[in-house]
Amino acid sequence: SAADRVDAGLPTAVVVSNVIAVGTSHGLALIFDPNQALRLCLGSTSVGAQYGAVSALSINSDCTRLLCGFAKGQITMWDLANGKLLRTIMDAHPPGTAILHIKFTDDPTVAICNDSGGSVFELTFKRVMGTRTCESRCLFSGAKGEVCCIQPLLVKAELRDHPITQYGLLAMASLTKVLVIGLKPSLKVWLTFPYGKTNPASVPLLSWHFIAVQNAVTPMLAFCRGGTIHFLLVKKDESGAVHVSKQKQLHLSYELINLTWINSRTLALLDSAEKLHVVDRHSQEELEMVDMAEVQLVYNSSHFKSLATGGNVSQALALVGEKACYQSVGSYGAQIIYLGTKSVHIITLRTWRERMDCLLKQERFTEVLALAWSFHEGKAKAVVGLFGDQSKRQGVIADRMVEILIQFADRALRKCPDQGKIQVMEQHFQDMVPVMVDYCLLLDRTDLLFGQIYSKLSEISVAKGVFIECLEPYVLTDKLTSITPQVMKDMLIHFQDKGMMETIEACIVHMDVTSLDIQQVVGMCWEHHLHDAMIYVYNRGMNDYIMPMEKLFQIIGPSLRAGKSLSDEQVIMGNKLLVYISCCLAGRAYPLGNIPEDLVPLVKNQVFEFLIRLHSTEVAPDEEIYPHIRTLLHFDTREFLNVLALTFENFQSDKQAVEHQQRIVDILLKVMVENSDFTPSQVGCLFTFLARQLAKPDNTLFVNRKLFDQVLEFLCSPDDESRHAERQQVLLELLQAGGVVQFDENRLVTMAEKAAFYQVCEFMYEKQQLYDKIIFCYLNDPVRKEEIFNYVHNMLSIPGYSAEDKASVWSKTIEHSKDLVAINPSKAAELVATHFTTELGSILEKLEDQHLLFLLLQNLLNPTDGGQVNRELQRNPQIHEKYIDLLCQFQPDRIPDFLRLSEHYRLEEATQITKRHQLHEATAYLLEKKGDVHGAFQVLLEILKRKLSLLTENEGEHSEELVQATESTLEETIGLCQRNSHSLNQQQREALWFPLLEAVMSTQKLLKDGSSSPAFESLKHLTKQVLNSMTGFIALPSILQRILQDPMYGKGKLGEIQGLILGMLDTFNYEQTLLETTTNLLNHDLHWSLSNLRAAVSRGLNPKQEHCGICLQQYKRRQEGTEEVIVFSCGHIYHSQCLHNKNCGVQTDGQTRWLCYKCNSSNKGGRHRDMGSEVNRGRSTSLAQIKVTSAYYSTSRDSDNKKPTEMTLDLQQLQAFDELRRLYRGPSRLAILTELSRNRGGNKQGLLHATSTHSITNSIFQNENFQLRLSPPPLAEE
């Protein structure tokens, strides 16, 4: 409204101090007081028309002067007291540029201005002879980089004496970097910091603030361009120089257009979307975000583009100006002012009370309590208005939190649903009551919790129940140990009504006993069997540690005395009793905490006296002596003795402690040794316990050794076969615990051997270093027989044993080798192969049982079973032949596999063995392996004839198994013929195949009359199989002639042999098709290879440089007329004359083959090697292309007279081509085609008659040495 009254135009700039000054587009400056009343209107519209809009404002530190910068470059100074114009500055900077910034410094006579040319000037105001003047000094020229933001360091009045003020620091932000300079005492640059890569449209921002660092107040500069804020700490070091150190950066996900400090910990960041982010600097946490779109922020774009002076600015500055709003934001104290197009908005942080009250108005009690507690703990951010030391601040906040908690309780009751399900009401209070309890305990205000809040919530039963249940987790975690008696009473009643007795017990043991109604709690404990709670109350409430034990003994004692099994509940009680006794004797409270130190000795004595009582308080007629110890021993002997062992370790060496220990031990011996109702395991546990105690160096116990002898006899009684393993384990544990010193070792070993306690014997033998006797223990122990192999292996392998010990074990093992094989042949074989290969003969002789011998050799020799054939065994063929003999006896079906896998037997002996056992297939294999092919064939043929005979004899009983066996034998015979036909001549082949064919056909002749029988069909199939197999080795006419000469077919009709002939013809057609297809594939493959090779070598070569690699002259500009230029595939280029001078040409067959000078020189062998060594030259040569060129080549039109372009192959290319031919020859394509097309029967024409004889002989396929003037693909240079 003020702007409308004076026709001020739109707002353009704002500055705030004790007053608010607003610059306008019509050149006016409106001055408002803090109450928003217009106090002054400086300037006029006529002056505004001359100077343009106000583009920058600044007020000095005492708020007496106002500087106005204008869009057309003028600067005016006004007196804010009376509105008088003091100065009009026209020549402070170059004309034609707008004022972007103008800033007072701490010195009221010095100001800094920045124009749209990017320059920065220092203005010094003086008054000489009553005349006000202004001197200008250029601090930074826009020609060196445009500055678009300046910020002098302004110091508050209380920091005027700060040492940094003597430098007059000024921060300037250009488009590429930030500079910090000192104006005093002389101009000096203290820092240059480049931005790095940034968005060119982002706005450079600067802002100073003083912060506390290590009990000192130091200025910090925050600057930003884009989304990263850098913090620089500026200090004056001891030498007097300004030291700048980088601090932690703040990375943002948005780009900023304004950066303002609210206080030393909080920043206000305005992003390019006009959203204001309040950020904590230390934690980098965003505290709040406010959308500022409704402010309609004023931008300074027109001034940055200098539109008022013709727009003569750089594009980079104009781009930055799109989002520039430097003059639209001002700060004063903790307030920030934002200038909008129609109004001015002030942003300020709320005080801590205002923040809480704001949440309270919205009834967000949970959030307000969380905020208040963060104030209380000093963890809140951006806290304003909270003064005093920490205790005072916490007191103020705690009082306020108490008020809020009471309001919260009232609201919980007020907002309670009046109607609906009980679950709805419970959920309502479960959302609120735990919060109240939590904060009351955090504030340590249990008086408030159990006073006002509990009384309020008790009005509603549901709220009361939720309150009580909320206390449980705090009680169990010991955060709440004291509850008022009334609340405790209500708590017990509530849980009891809901049947939550375990919860009651868990809570009672965490509570202070003084808050409990002892009578109520004890009665409840007895009624509901809450034994933990009962023990706790007796111990803590009445210092009675004996009564709980008496009660627990009364629960488990009668059943144990009667020999009945205990119920689950009684077992739990017995375990509780043991733990309770253990805790009492160790000085710990049950179930939690510790017994008071002054009571520990008393409690220990009371517990011991109770345990060793001769009789219980209520003596039963049949009660035996020492009922308590007897009961515990019967309940769990081992655990009770463990309790005593732990107790003895914690005993101090005083007279009373020693007496207690001895007394307990005497009672234990009296109770257990003199009674027969304890098991061997229980008795063994006692003596193991005693042995451990006696083995201690500070032992004071005395035990009669005769008792140990009695226990030994008891455990080793040979008449008692029951619990053998249990008795042995008990004795072993007794010895391992140190009890061996209590026995006569010889007597112990003798009794252990009689009782078959082999583990005990092993323990004693090892102690006596009689390692060979341990083998006896393993062999006779049915449970641990398998472990003997590991024992022997470890003894013979692990260092630490003497040679004598190892020798004794070695000989004992050989002695019992038969037993070892019987136990586990596989492990025995592994042991023999590892340690006993030299004694293998004697070991085999000891094995009279042939089957055991077979099993041992099988694991030694048969690789299929995982055995490794030892080298010693490989040199002994007799062992392999012995195994073959045994294999023929026990597993004849595995003979063929073994003969194929093994090579360590003699063929003649193995053949005799297989013949003796009539294993004909194996015999045939061995004969074939010897080279006696016909002998092997005769063996298989005889087997086949026998099976064919059986097939004809059992024609009526045709079985599938017999047919399959016949087919298998036939396939094996055919395989023999096929494997060996390649190495035989035609006559020898016929000697194999024709007898086989005759055997099958003769059998078929016998069944000719029953041609429809299944046997006849099977024989026809077998005959066809033989014919198909032999056609690859016997000429087709020979086969037909043999069939026709056969009496069976020679006198018959053609129809009888039609099937055979058609089958042979089908086979012929198949092979002919296969040949043609293979030939086509090979031709296509060769054509593809040659085409790719030609395409690769036809590509042009690209030189890497434009000058000769020898004379270093550019080949395009050399003025020596026409000259050849040679380019190699490696990229090097030379003049031919230069190469010739370096002897890089090789004459072969009247042609010059060029070598690359650089590549050839790098080869250590040089080029003067024998041509036969070219294969090893690697990459020392390159493909060469020769071109005629000269200085005038590009314009010459008579190039036909020049030497034409020529392509040659160098040595490496020839080598590569030879390699290619070798790869594709295999040995040659012609040989392959000839082999495929050769006469199959001796008088059959080849299949390659599609071309004439003349064309074939002239084909390149017939010429093994045809020339190909091409090269392989160029190799890329490494």
From TrEMBL:
Q: Which InterPro entries match?
A: Vps41/Vps8 (IPR045111), Vps8_central_dom (IPR025941), WD40/YVTN_repeat-like_dom_sf (IPR015943), WD40_repeat_dom_sf (IPR036322), WD40_rpt (IPR001680), Znf_RING (IPR001841), Znf_RING/FYVE/PHD (IPR013083), Znf_RING_Vps8 (IPR056939)
Task: Name the domain of life this protein comes from.
Answer: Eukaryota
Read off the SMART domains from this record. Answer: RING
Ranges where the RING-type domain occurs: 1108-1160
Q: Which UniProt keywords apply?
A: Metal-binding, WD repeat, Zinc, Zinc-finger
Q: Which CDD domains match?
A: RING-H2_Vps8 (cd16687)
Gene Ontology molecular functions: zinc ion binding
What cellular-component terms does GO give this entry?
CORVET complex; early endosome; HOPS complex; late endosome
Q: Where are the WD repeats?
A: 47-88
An annotated GO BP = endosomal vesicle fusion
UniProt similarity note: Belongs to the VPS8 family.
The name of this protein is: Vacuolar protein sorting-associated protein 8-like protein
Species assigned in the record: Callorhinchus milii
